[in-house]
TrEMBL record:
The chain crosses the membrane at residues 12-29. Residues 432-443 have a biased composition (Basic and acidic residues). Belongs to the glycosyltransferase 49 family. This is Beta-1,4-glucuronyltransferase 1. Residues 424-449 are annotated as: Disordered. GO terms for biological process: protein O-linked glycosylation via mannose. Pathway: Protein modification; protein glycosylation. Pfam families: Glyco_transf_49 (PF13896).
Length: 553
């Protein structure tokens, strides 16, 4: 009798061991989440659950680890992805993947919506952003493959430990079509293991190390980051009158959010539909323990060489046209407003700004690093925007920036630079143009009544003869265009002098710096600040000018 019983017990033990091993293996097997909650109508930021709605069916995602697997299986079976694909067919986006319960309320009551974009590696910056901004905050995150697990775990951690900060935040996700989001089944349990006393930056780093496979890390080192796509995703989700698009690691000075909201509630700022309000950015040295709390503290750090203008060393044109030496000398005052107006647009100028929602989109053709904001500012200049420098607002970026030595990033910068140089405003997607205010000659050259002032501070023209100057500065379009140009400048109160001093020639391009050639006795080229051009370029040379078709008026 003992032998059969012993055999039965042995079989039970073998089955139990196999079952245990199988469960362990299963626990490390990822649950693929190919479809997402794109059309979430409302989100309950309760400690235990998040609710999504799909075609009227409420689906519960419980934070308790024992029930997560069932919920995820239900999501995979019942939800059809409703995201949208970008125009190039490279990325898919799901807006309002999660939305704080106060999002809609603050969006109704605030004038300005803060917008940002980030990879999962920098999600920890959301904490200081939300601490300094009490209004609606729209965040677009790139989530290829298992990076989605990092997002879910990080949000779960923040929801548990920084719940109040997330109430005003809306999260949106984008990912390469070839790398749809994947969710590790241990994500929720992992997020619950971190103490709320831990620094969010440390938690973020640990989650990336644990949940991101080595193969994905290798891919991301060379992958192109769609900054402009993500900026558009975040901005389009806002329904406030003004939007404020900044990078996730640019932190606002404390208490400035209320001043900004009150300023933009005034009728004077609301009535200017083509005003861009510039907010300067400063780099803060890492030895400084805390960001400056006001402009006076910032100026003190500048004097101590512990702060400097953003991209001052790595890419000066980024903020070069903002005239920050003038901003730094403005009288310190508690009154919030416009310190001065910047008269001209300069090529490659890419400041952070606040403007009404009806502005050009960021050009999504620029992927990767470099020149990603330039095309939008060019189009805003073409549309007749004016630039207003706010006196007391600024953002802080931790660490001094230097020119990159990363060959991959440098390659991306050069590619985007080439793309920017080939942009032609006549053929690019123009913004808010009125055909009634546009004149054309027989050759199709355009005359803009409202005009656009452009300075090209990187221009370099060297000429050795009077004939070369004439060749570069002039061509022979119709007299109608020249008359229109001179008439327009006279109407604006500019002294045009005699720009047609060389008999038989007429103006086609004046966007050149004042020539130092001693032989130019018959005419003086117009100063660069008085030129209005329709074609952007970075380096003016003879061949480039002859091809550019620039028109001044």
């Amino acid at each position: 009798m003992g032998r059969p019983w012993g055999r039965w017990m042995w079989k039970v033990m073998v089955v139990a061991v196999v079952f245990t091993i199988g469960k362990i293996i299963y626990s490390f097997n990822p649950v693929y989440k190919d479809t997402l909650l794109n059309n979430i109508k409302a989100v309950n930021w309760d400690d235990k659950t998040i609710f999504g709605h799909n075609n009227g069916t409420s689906i519960k995602m419980d934070f308790r680890a024992e029930q997560v697997d069932v919920s995820l299986q239900q999501l995979n079976e019942e939800i059809t992805s409703l995201g949208h694909i970008d125009s190039r067919g490279m990325f898919k986006t799901h807006q309002f993947q999660l939305m704080g319960r106060e999002w809609q309320n603050v969006s109704r009551n605030w004038q300005v919506c803060l917008c940002t974009q980030t990879s999962v590696d920098k999600m920890f910056w959301i904490v200081p952003q939300t601490e300094s901004w009490a209004g609606p905050f729209s965040v677009a995150i790139l989530v290829p493959s298992y990076d989605y697990s990092v997002v879910v775990a990080m949000i779960a951690f923040l929801q548990r430990c920084k719940e109040e900060l997330l109430q005003r935040v809306a999260f949106h996700i984008s990912y390469p079509i070839t790398l749809p989001p994947q969710l590790d089944k241990n994500t929720w349990r992992l997020a619950a293991n971190f103490s709320c006393d831990m620094n969010p930056k440390v938690v973020n780093k640990k989650l990336v190390e644990i949940l991101r496979p080595a193969s994905l890390s290798t891919y991301l080192k060379k992958a192109l980051y769609p900054q402009n796509l993500l900026r558009n995703v975040a901005r389009n989700a806002c329904n406030t009158r003004f939007t404020f698009v900044l990078d996730v690691d640019m932190i606002l000075v404390n208490n400035i959010d209320t001043h900004l909201n009150n300023f933009f509630a005034r009728n004077s700022s609301r009535e200017c539909s083509k005003c861009a309000y510039i907010v300067p950015t400063y780099e803060i040295h890492t030895t400084v323990s805390h960001n400056p709390e006001n402009k006076q503290q910032l100026l003190h750090l500048l004097n101590k060489k512990l702060a400097r203008r953003f991209h001052e060393r790595s890419f000066y044109p980024n903020q070069g046209n903002s005239e920050l030496s003038k901003w730094e000398k403005l009288n310190l005052t508690s009154e919030f407003g416009v310190g001065y107006i910047i008269p001209d647009y300069v090529m490659q100028w890419e400041p952070i700004y606040i403007a009404q929602g009806d502005i050009p989109m960021f050009d999504e053709r620029f992927i990767g690093f470099g020149y990603d904001r330039s095309s939008q500012f060019l189009e805003m200049a073409m549309a007749g925007f004016s630039w207003h420098m706010l006196n007391n607002a600024f953002t802080c970026h931790r660490g001094f920036q230097e020119k990159t030595k990363d060959p991959i990033r440098n390659h991306q910068i050069m590619q985007n630079k080439d793309s920017f140089q080939t942009l032609n405003p006549r053929t690019m997607g123009t913004f808010n143009r009125d055909e009634e205010n546009r004149g054309r000659d027989n050759e199709g050259l355009e005359i803009e009544e409202n005009g656009m002032k452009i300075r090209d501070e990187t221009a370099s023209v060297t000429t050795q003869s009077k004939e070369d100057i004439y060749t570069i500065a002039y061509k022979t379009p119709t007299t109608k265009l020249v008359d229109a140009a001179i008439s327009r400048l006279n109407h604006l109160g500019w002294d045009t002098g005699d720009p047609t001093g060389l008999e038989g020639t007429n103006i086609d391009c004046c966007a050149i710096k004042q020539s130092r050639n001693k032989h130019q006795d018959s005419f003086t080229p117009w100063p660069i600040s008085k030129c209005i051009a329709l074609t952007p370029f970075l380096r003016l040379q003879k061949s480039a000018l002859l091809r550019s078709g620039l028109l001044c008026f």
